[in-house]
Amino acid sequence: MKTGASPASATEQFRLPSAMRAAIIDQAMREAPRECCGIIAGRDGVPMRLYETRNVAAGNRFYEIDPAQLIDLEFRELPEQETEIVAIYHSHPESPAYPSATDVELAFWPDAVFLICSLADRDRPEIHGFRIRDGAIDEVTLSP
Amino acid sequence: MQNDTGITVLIPTPLRRFTGGDAKVIVAGSSVGEVLDALDATHPGIGERLRDDSGQLRRFVNVFVNGQNIRDGEGVDTRLSAGDEVGIIPAMAGGTSV
Fold first, then answer.
1. Chain B residues with CB inside 8 Å of A111's CB?
2. Does the reported pTM lie above 0.95?
3. Which of A113, A139, B41, B55 satisfies CB 3.0 to 4.6 Å to A87 for a cystine?
4. What pLDDT does residue A3 have?
């Protein structure tokens, strides 16, 4: 993977299949007012399977993927499927689809695309994608 | 190399840059703390990602021994035997307010 400077215009693309987009919105609606969360596994950055996960954080304004579920995915399920985590998603039930300061502070998985589903307008849920690395946020263009 | 006190440590993707890409490392140690010390000795830099200055596990790092979260037990003092498996997993977490 090239790590040098790249043109600002070279926006990264991430393919989010419509079925996965619909699944994330459905889960966000079901779990509101709590934040929902999950991961997408794939190969070479290409999504293959979505895993809903449990949010073990207290309250309605935080999420933390159940670490027991995450460790099983990272070290058993995904290696068995020969996949890896390509994206992490969570919902913002009442705020925009943009990383919060807490999201940036706790971004410990820089190789994954961060997907945020906003239900701020319940009639028009939105999902946006980001790279969060070393405190910097770069939007990723999502395509179906 | 597996030996009488060999403990397998499972390294999560974001920390594999410290292990040359290896997903598993075998080190010696009779407690989680000793194993993390040994891991940092052979892979410098990984230790500070896992523990704070007082040696306690960072809030957003979880360690499992044979599938059990050490926060529910003895923490870094959890005793280990040869063949035990220690899994390290950074949190996936965030929120809409600080």
1. 13-14
2. no
3. A113
4. 47
